[in-house]
Amino acid sequence: MQPGLQKGPGSDRGGRKKARGERREGERCPRGAKTESESEPSEAGREGRNPKSPAVVAEAREGPPPGPEAIRQAADRGARVLLTAPTGRLAATLRERFPGLEVDTVHGAFLAYKPVHEALEVMWPYDLIVVEEVGQLSRELFERLITQWRAAERIPTLVFVGDFYQLPGVEPTTALDSPQWHHVQVQKRHLHEMIRCKCPILRKKLELLRTAGYVTNEIPTLDDVTHILAETPETTFLTVSRGASARLNGLATQALFGDSAPLAVVPADPESNVDNYVRGKLVAETPLETPLSGARVVLTKNLNKTVGFVNGMGATVLGMDNDNVMVRTDQGARLAIHPWTSENHVVRYPLRLGYASTLHKVQGATLAHITVWLDIPNMPAAAYWSSTRTGAASATRGCTTSRQLASTEGPQEGGRGAGQESKVAC
Q1: How far is 399 from 355, CA to CA, in rounded Å?
Q2: Is the pLDDT at 37 greater than 70, yes or no?
Q3: Mean per-residue pLDDT, 231-251
Q4: Fewer CB within 10 A of the terminal residue: the chain, N end or C end?
Q5: What is the pTM of this model?
Q6: Cα separation of 263 and 392, whole Å?
Q7: Distance between CA 307 and CA 155 in Å, rounded?
Q8: Among candidates 54, 350, 333, which has minimal Cα distance to 180?
Q9: What does the pLDDT look like over 85-96, one tens digit per residue?
Q10: What is the DSSP letter of 412?
C-alpha cells in the first residue's frame, strides 16, 4: 500500500490538474528499492499524494481481494479508492464487503463503451484503483486501462489482481498477450497462499486441478438430477455449455415441480434460449418461456447496483404482483422484477432459471454446494475454477461417476497453454 495516500492538493480533478507541476518534480522509486509496505512514509507522502506510481499486478492466487485491511486503512487516511470487477455479480460482492468504498464493473468504471480518447480522465479522481480478476480482461481492455493510467500521469496506484490458471474471459486474448504486460512499469508480485480455502482435502484437489484438464462423456438423466436434488437441495449445477445448462434447468424443474401448475409462465432471458444461437453466436432474441413455481432464478441485467439488481445475482421467486415477479435476492433484498423492453422492442423479464448455470455466469459467486457437469472437454481451467466456488471438498460433487484428468500446461507468457496427455485420479 502506498504510504502517501493521504488526500492532498490533488484530491479532486481541479486540484489534480493544478498540482501537476508539483507532482512532476517527484522522483520515482528506483528498481531494487523497498516496496511501499516496507518503507517508511516519506515527507512527500505526508504532504500530499505520491509521485508517479508503478502498476502492480498481483497474480496467481485464490480468494478475496488482496489486503482488505490495507485498503480500508488507505480509505480511513483519506485516500479515494476505487474497486472494480469484470462482472456485476462480483462487483456486488465487493460492494457488500466494502460498503463505504466506490465499487463498479470494469466496463462501467472506465467507460469501456466509449472511445478511449473520450475517457482519458477517468482515473484522475482516485488514489488507489484495484482491478479484480485480471485474467478475464482482454488484451484490448488491459491496454486501455494502462493508457488511461498514463493519461493520469501514473499518479493513482493501479493494482491488478487475478489468477491466469482460473477461468479465462470470453475474449480470445488476455493481458498476457499484451506487450504492456512485459513493460517495466508493470511490476508483478506472485502470491501463493490460498486464502478462502480452509479445507485440506479441497486444497489438495485444487493443487492437482490447477494444472489439469478433464475428459467426460456421461449425460445426467432425470433420475440423476432428482437424486442429487434430494440429497443436496441447495446445490447449483455448473456446466461448460449453454445447452447443458438449459438441459439441467429443465430436468431440475421436472424433478422439483413435476406436472404441477406453475405460478406463472413468463418470457425470460433470450440468452438462455439455445434456439437463438447458430454456431455459438446469438442471432435472435426470442425469450425463453419459463415456468415460475417458487423457483430459484438469476437476474440478468444491471439495473440497480445499489440494491443488488445486477447480472448474476441469485434470487428466489416469492410470488406475482400484477405483472411483476417478486423475488428475494441472495443478499436479502426484496425486488420487483418488471418486464423490460430491449432496443429491438422485445419484451422479456431480466431473469432466468437458477438451478444450473455455465461457469462464466457464476464468476464472483461463492456457492453453498455445487454439482459439476463438465460436458465439453478441454475447457481451460474449468475443473480447477469450478472447485474454487465452494470452501470445502464436501460441497463439491460431479454429475457423472467416471472421470479422467489429462494434464495441461498452465498459462504461458503470450498464450494460454496447450494440452499434454497424462492420467491422474480424480
Answers
A1: 14
A2: no
A3: 90
A4: C
A5: 0.66
A6: 35
A7: 32
A8: 54
A9: 988 888 888 888
A10: B
Amino acid at 234: E
Q: How large is the angle between the packed helices 222-231 and 242-257, nearest 10 degrees?
A: 70
User: Strand pairing partners for 326?
Assistant: 319, 336
Adjacency order of strands within the sheet including 314-321: 334-337, 324-329, 314-321, 296-299, 351-353
All three cell numbers of 198: 480452509
Give the count of beta carbons closer than 10 Å to the beta carbon of residue 401: 7
The DSSP bridge partners found for residue 328 are 316, 334
- Whether the predicted pLDDT of 331 surpasses 50: yes
What distance in Å separates the CA atoms of residue 349 and residue 336, rounded to the nearest whole number? 11
- The widest CA-to-CA distance across the chain, in whole angstroms, is 74
Confidence of residue 408 (pLDDT cuts 50, 70, 90): very low
DSSP 3-state of 109: helix
Residue that has been written with the C-alpha cell 478433464 in this structure: 214
CB 214 within 8 A of CB 405: yes
CATH of domain 13-190: 3.40.50.300
d(CA 5, CA 1): 8
Residue type, 48: G
Give the domain ranges of the chain: 13-190, 200-420
Question: Among 163-172, 248-257, 269-278, 375-384, where is mean pLDDT lowest?
Answer: 375-384
Grid coordinates of 185: 512499469
